[in-house]
Design goal:
This protein is mainly beta. The chain has one helix and nine strands. The strands form two sheets. Strands 1, 3, 4, 7, 8 and 9 form a six-stranded antiparallel sheet that branches. Strands 2-6-5 form a three-stranded antiparallel sheet, with no helix packed on it. 23% of the residues are buried.
Length: 149
Amino acid sequence: MSLNPEHLQALADRIDTGSENPEGSRALVIFNLTETPQSGTAVFRASMSWPLNLPLPPVAVAALEGGLVAAVIRELSEAPDRKGRADRVLLSFALHLAATDIPANGWRTYIASYAEAASPLLENAAENADLIVIETTRHGGELPPRGNF
């Protein structure tokens, strides 16, 4: 199946990602565009403006249907703020998470939040390039949190 990132974002925006704590968490919809179910390390790369000298808090990741999954932030780096603000930096990172049972030609929703959690350890496994992570807000939607195209 051939879907570009804009199509996947539009699809993620239609998926029910749960409405609990919409301000304190984000949904990560993991897509699998292959003909077989996939599991493995999915990687979400992001950049954001962040207060200077404030450490990034721990991130907890759970499947929407419950249960913490192994996750770790790697590749953390800082650059000058895009707007030139002296009190902020551009923080870039890669959130690695253990995705399981992503349906063939389908998706599964995970929730990420800043929280201290006893998350399982994530082995230093290679990224599964078949898994595409799209971030979206927490919201209701006409498509289920897990499904197929």
